[in-house]
Amino acid sequence: MTSSELTSSEQPSSEQPSSEQRLPLVLAVCGASAQVLALRSLQLLLEAGEAVDLIISRGAFEVWRAELGLLLPVAPAEQERLLRERCGTNAGTLRCYRWNDQAAAPASGSYRTRGMLILPASMGTVGRVAAGVATDLIERCADVHLKEARPLVIAPREMPWNLIHLRNLTTLAEAGARIAPPIPAWYHQPESLGDMVDFLVARILDLFGYELGELRRWQGPIGSAQRPLASPQRP
Ligand SMILES: Cc1cc2nc3c(=O)[nH]c(=O)nc-3n(C[C@H](O)[C@H](O)[C@H](O)COP(=O)(O)O)c2cc1C
Fold first, then answer.
1. Using a 6 Å cutoff on CB, does residue 123 contact ligand 1?
2. Cβ of 125 less than 6 Å from ligand 1
3. Which domains does the chain have, with CATH numbers?
């Protein structure tokens, strides 16, 4: 049967996510600067009804406190409660995992995901994944995504990069990861840090095919002269 022979109820609808789209995204958060990008990504994904498997590294707890003034609980259930409260939504599916729970479902290649995003990625985690060393759940999941040839997007945050960082990132790119550093652009005419955060997050999630937020795509000099719509409430 061709698609033209399907009845209207059988036609694929743009409103109905495909089974591939309903798979969870593994969102891994390392102890690098820019935790706000992880929090905003989580908020946008949940608001859109998506499923997120969240792993926050041990090193990230200190950075959440320093940057967002947030004392993250270690227990997954407590983490879920606090993050949902902070994101202000009950939509979507959120599962939090302890950084050292190497027996968790996403540690196995048999567990299906839409892909994995490490945002932000620390140079420590980048180095360990590039070396094939898995000391925690984030590193194990990244290793699994590479071996299963599933989408793995790494958003490294460090400045400047030394030669070791550059070599490790090259190794990961050669192994199949996409390296997407959270580098801002100005062609969307940001008026605030919030605009910048939203652009970076939308641009990175766009790599998985998510259409979230107000990502202004470059349409040439004339299209770029328009201002984006008012920003929604941020966590
Ligand atoms: C406030 C703060 C900011 C940090 N920013 C970065 C950073 O931008 N990039 C980085 O590679 N490490 C950064 N670090 C150091 C990492 O947190 C540290 O190397 C940690 O062990 C990384 O652990 P993880 O790879 O398991 O997340 C920062 C640490 C603190 C306390």
1. yes
2. yes
3. 20-213 (3.40.50.1950)
Closest CA to 29 of 169, 181, 176, 138: 138
State pLDDT tens for residues 88-135: 999 999 999 999 999 999 999 999 999 999 999 999 999 999 999 999
Nearest CA to ligand 1 atom 3: 33
The residue whose CA is least distant from atom 30 of ligand 1 is 63
Amino acid 220: pLDDT: 72
Question: Distance between CA 146 and CA 177 in Å, rounded?
Answer: 7
Does residue 235 have its Cβ closer than 6 Å to ligand 1? no
CB 139 within 8 A of CB 128: yes
Predicted TM-score (pTM) of this structure: 0.88
Q: How far, in whole angstroms, is CA 22 from its chain's centroid?
A: 15
Cβ neighbour number for residue 170 with a 10 Å cutoff: 12
